[in-house]
Design goal:
heterodimer, A: alpha+beta, 5-stranded antiparallel β-sheet, B: two-stranded antiparallel sheet, globular
């Protein structure tokens, strides 16, 4: 029984801030940038973007498991994978799980998916790692925690399959190590003395776990062409590699950390994807996570289908597509700096039955296409008679996620919590449906006729409950 | 000839504005008394057999279960049938339309319509702007009134080359007219430059492209046309009316450069009155934003589709123009207390047709005046009423 990687997905938010721009307000600085989740982004929305990339051209009915690993799920008690499943339009029987607890939860999810396939429980499963952790103002973490998501589509391999890579083996090593923690009270991640963490935490654990993995299999680091380690910072993976006798250019981690920061549960999977965009068939990749004293080591062999990853080059595209923030914007987007004043409540609460009735329309953009005239009525919960022709027979369809801007306005005067200026877009989707969406990641350079992409975002938060749906943005790349 | 089954015999309103000192009820009473006292040959309130009360957004301002009965007692008319009408921006005019049908049906001979709105008891962020968080949390998210009209302005400018300056000319004209109307919220002249330099509210509209938030009330007394002579020698007859609708959500609209609800309402009203747009001497139209007035010129047939900008630029809708529009100052200068707006427009047309509009009086060539509202969710409701001084 072989488990193969048949596709991958990545998402990096558009926003970045330089470590210098943060550090100059406190002390220190450092090289490079971190990626910042937009004010309407979180682990759920980033997981959906990753999943949408991952599932292009895939028969959704074949996906039988969705496991997400994160240390910054939007909820303590409410399933994020449940929201992501709905947004991706996966089967209701899909096996779901949210893995959490530390930055290695996504590799726990990966192992569970591998095991599920090997045990014959399902043939195809999806694993996503994502994080957007927050650290307090002035802390080291403030300059390190980035945001992003990365995922893999795994499948039981038949002889005819062309796969990107094959999962070989994995192992784990664990101690109870206190490198970081957060609790629900303030939502910030706290870290203890960095030199202690570096010496006895990351380095020691990764080195021990990898040596243990190699010794048991009577193999050597020289058997591997690429390494993707957990990236809590750009230095620790390099020193660990040195201790293991690995040439620094074989470890991709620091490149990503300098570009997007410590993206937690997305770190190792994004590193793997970054390598897959460069690797050649037959080469071998070792990935190793680290979180709360646990290291997972996974060995992967690149297959002939890796060209698909090279052509897709998604990680590289996301790394290049960016917009820099000021420190104040960063604080606002991370909800550290919060506007005062009365916030009018939603007329219909986010957890209302109204939204439950519209769940598939809102999360998966499903409409009622009139069989008689072809007009797509939206949302289906309200449209039992075609508004154009009066027909009453419909096909349930998923709306296109791209279109052309028909018209727009930019609202400069809205009450909290709506952020101004706020573009309001009327988009003619590629399937002919006209939709009204709020704009995101758009400046004021909006033009009728421009291409708009429909993206999954957090629309509102009400009593701690999030309302997700679609917004429109310009073409990302 | 027109329909002319119902006559307007009295009309009254109060000065619109930020009336912090006046209660909802006090505004309604004042407008009501002004209407009663305006009846030329005297009027006994006991003759009123039924009332329609227009209140557009009571639920946004703490009057959640506002019913007709909540006002009628304050008018001293407790006991008679009283119905509240809430129908978006045409609330007041739709109350008049329903009252007309009540009289024309023969059930009532004399009825009262009061339109009243208290909009300033809440701050903007919780009132009209607070709409942005009401209704469907996704489909209507951030949907303030201007968020519906501004995208249509963008498209009209794109398709027909309508300019920001032409939009501004609407505000300049209506502010000028407002200076001649003692009931207007604003009594100041402005320039095109003032409009263009005022802050953005929602691109492509600036602050002075918008009507203000206003408290106000207006009332009219209607009777069976056959009885009008008992009350006045100068009634205005209801020559025709119409109401048109469009789709619920704005994204369902097929055309963003006009309001099909208006064209539908106007078609009915013109047919009922037996006139063409060319026979309208004066119009009070729904200029909630400057673009709305320009599109309405086209929707009502005052000019060709796409020529609305040229119509204002050519001065044709000024008091002395070919078709004077909004002599009262319109919503932009007079104010837009939703439920009162349509009723106040009827008041203005009544006065114009009687030749009582003073220094804002227009020339009467055909004897027809038109009232128009459009709005509500999706800008999907419109009422057009045509009055005439000719029996």
């Amino acid at each position: 029984m072989t488990v193969g990687i048949i596709d991958y997905g990545v998402y990096i938010p558009k926003y970045r801030i330089t470590r210098k721009a943060i550090g100059e307000n406190w002390s220190g600085g450092g090289k490079g940038e971190i990626s910042v989740a937009g004010p309407d982004e979180d682990v759920v929305t980033m997981s959906v973007e990753t999943g949408q990339d991952l599932l292009k051209g895939v028969d959704l009915q074949g996906v039988q498991a969705l496991f997400i690993g994160s240390a910054s799920f939007p909820y303590m008690d409410h399933s994020s994978s449940g929201i992501v499943r709905e947004a991706l339009g996966l089967n209701h029987k899909t096996e779901l799980a949210d893995y959490t607890g530390s930055a290695r939860a996504s590799l726990a999810a990966l192992k569970a998916c591998i095991n599920g396939i090997k045990a014959g429980k399902f043939d195809m499963g999806m694993v996503i790692g994502s994080d957007a952790r927050r650290a307090g103002p002035g802390s080291d973490g403030e300059k390190e925690f980035g945001a992003g998501a990365a995922g893999l589509l795994l499948k039981k391999i038949e002889e005819k399959d062309t796969i990107i890579a094959e999962i070989e083996e994995y192992s784990s090593y664990s101690t109870n190590f206190p490198e970081s923690w957060s609790n629900p009270d303030d939502g910030y991640v706290w870290e203890y003395e960095p030199r202690f963490i570096r010496k006895f935490g990351f380095e020691d654990h990764v080195v021990k776990a990898i040596n243990d993995f190699l010794n048991k299999r009577d193999t050597y680091v020289s058997s591997y062409d690429y390494f993707a380690f957990q990236g809590p910072n750009s230095r620790d993976p390099v020193t660990a590699a040195k201790r293991l006798g690995i040439a620094p250019n074989k470890v991709c981690t620091s490149v990503l950390v300098e570009a997007v920061g410590d993206i937690g549960n997305a770190s190792v999977l994004m590193g793997l994807n970054y390598i897959l965009e460069r690797a050649l068939p037959g080469q071998r990749i070792m990935i190793a996570s680290f979180g709360s004293g646990t290291v997972d080591v996974v060995s992967i062999k690149v297959s002939a289908g890796v060209n698909k990853a090279r052509e897709k080059a998604l990680t590289s595209k996301y790394l290049q597509s960016k917009k820099n923030l000021t420190y104040v914007q960063y604080l606002k987007y991370r909800e550290v700096l919060v506007e005062t004043g009365v916030e009018p409540s939603l007329g219909v609460p986010a957890m209302s039955p109204l939204l439950w009735r519209d769940s598939e329309a809102i999360h998966h953009l499903e409409g009622n296409k009139c069989i008689a005239c072809g007009y797509i009525n939206y949302p289906p919960s309200q449209k039992l008679i075609c508004i154009r022709c009066g027909g009453t027979n419909f096909d349930r369809v998923v709306l296109a996620k791209r279109g052309i801007l028909h018209t727009y306005a930019i609202n400069y005067y809205l009450p909290k919590p709506l952020e101004s200026p706020l573009p309001i877009l009327f988009v003619d989707l590629d399937d002919g449906t006209r939709m009204r969406v709020l704009g995101t990641e758009l400046a004021t350079d909006i033009k009728i006729g421009m291409t708009i992409e429909m993206v999954f975002r957090r629309i509102a938060t009400d009593r701690g409950f999030n309302l997700y749906g679609y917004k429109g943005r310009g073409e990302r790349f | 000839m027109g329909w002319n089954k119902v006559a307007v015999i009295g009309a009254g309103m109060i000065k619109f504005g930020e009336l912090f000192e006046k209660s909802y009820e006090a505004m309604a009473v004042e407008a009501y008394l002004n209407a009663i006292n305006s009846v030329d040959k005297g009027f006994n309130p006991k003759e009123i057999q039924a009332a329609w009360i227009g209140s557009g957004v009571g639920s946004l301002f703490g009057c959640e279960a506002l019913a007709g009965a909540s006002l009628i007692g304050n008018l001293g008319l407790v006991g008679i049938p009283a119905t509240r009408v809430e129908n978006g921006c045409p609330t007041g005019s739709d109350a008049v339309r329903n009252a007309c049908m009540g009289v024309a049906s023969g059930v009532y001979d004399v009825v009262l319509v009061v339109g009243c709105e208290k909009m300033k008891d809440k701050p903007s962020s919780e009132g009209m702007i607070g709409r942005s968080l009401q209704r469907h949390p996704i489909l209507n998210r951030a949907e303030t009134a201007i968020s519906m009209f501004a995208p249509q302005a963008t498209r009209h400018m794109y398709e027909y080359g309508t300019t920001k300056e032409q939009l501004a000319m609407v505000a300049v004209k209506n502010h000028h007219n407002g200076c001649l109307c003692k009931y207007a919220h604003f009594q100041n002249e402005i320039t095109v430059d003032d409009v263009l330099k005022s802050p953005w509210v929602t691109y492509p509209l600036n602050l002075l492209d918008c009507c203000p938030q206003t408290d106000g009330a207006a009332a009219v007394i209607l009777c069976n046309a056959e009885m009008a002579g008992k009350y006045t020698d100068k009634p205005a007859y209801v020559a025709g009316f119409g109401m048109g609708t469009d789709y619920q959500y704005q994204y369902e609209k097929e055309d963003f450069t006009g309001f099909v609800a208006t064209t539908r309402a106007a078609k009915q009203a013109y047919a009922m009155a037996g006139i063409t747009p060319l026979e309208v001497d004066v119009a009070e139209v729904h200029d909630c934003f400057t673009i709305t007035e320009i599109m309405t010129y086209e929707d009502l047939g005052f000019c060709e589709k796409g020529d609305g900008g040229k119509l204002i630029e050519g001065g044709h809708t000024q008091l002395t123009g070919r078709i004077p529009v909004n002599p009262s100052g319109g919503l932009i200068a007079k104010g837009h207390p939703l439920g009162a707006t349509g009723v106040a427009q009827i008041c203005e047309i009544f006065w114009q047709l009687r030749g009582e509009a003073g220094n804002r009086q227009v020339d009467l060539k055909h004897g027809f005046g038109l009232q128009h509202n459009v709005g509500g969710t999706g800008i999907a409701n419109s009422v057009v009423t045509i009055l005439t001084n000719k029996r």
